[in-house]
Amino acid sequence: MSNFLLIFAAALVCAIGATPIARQVALRLGIINEPAGNRFSNKRIPMLGGIAMYAAFIIAVLLFAEQFYISQMLGILVGATWVSFLGIWDDRKMLNPLAKFAGQIFGALILILTGVQVEFLHQPVLNAGATIVWVLGITNAINFLDNMDGLSGGVAAIAAFFFLALAALNGQILVGMLAAAMLGAALGFLLYNFNPATIFMGDAGSLFIGFILAAIGIKLRFPANTDLVTWMVPVLVLGLPIFDTTLVTLSRLRRRVPIYVGGKDHTSHRLVQFGLSPRASVLVLYLVSAACGALALIVAQADLVTGYALASVGALIALIALWQLESRFQYPG
Question: What's the pLDDT at 80?
Fold first, then answer.
């Protein structure tokens, strides 16, 4: 537990120190976010905040992690490095969506080759396929969620906090180290990214965060419970980004709008249309994310029947929210 605190503190301090440097580098290199249709900010904001988070995370893990040399930890760090560089490339050159998708698949393959993969299916090829789907799904869900000041970074910090709590309660060292580093890095960056933001994380940050959270979800284990319960817990912890991506995907498919094109149809945008300010919308979504994490914590410690019942109630609430947010939202034009 003391190592978790050291890793958290190191990542927090490094992120607080590195983010202003990343901002200056972004300004000098001209890596600036131009006002776009998928964000509420109408200012030109420097990016590269994700590089500060990445650096803080890596430094904290390498300095204080006891098991950074094992193949699975190395696979996660190498994969995270790859997707971070992929994100930088996208921030600078605007990658073709297909190339970006292929790059994310390569990152997932790095995990699989180093033994970080889903294990609840009976066929290795099915486990590999499920791993790729999970990694791509969560990585892009966090990327989609990065549409309002402080939203993606704050939700990542909340998810990391609950992953850390679950790891501490169940003695899972690898998960705890990764979650502690992510929590510190995200909170340090959030000091500069919360509304009004002075720096954005860019794809370098959102892809990195999503990849790490996906890897943590894969490594989280509850041997005393069934495989289904083991997978319900990370799905609940990451419930908000999964919900938002599901809402946007179904809505765009229904309207025959390309899924990969940015737009103001995310959960946060809908809350603003319903009367909340952008800052209030983000705070409400923080509460929702925390509620999802708390539910995951309860399900992880509950008996089988109680766990299924609570998860079912959560799924029902999510379905009702999906219907309400889609039916009441008025699309521009």
Answer: 97
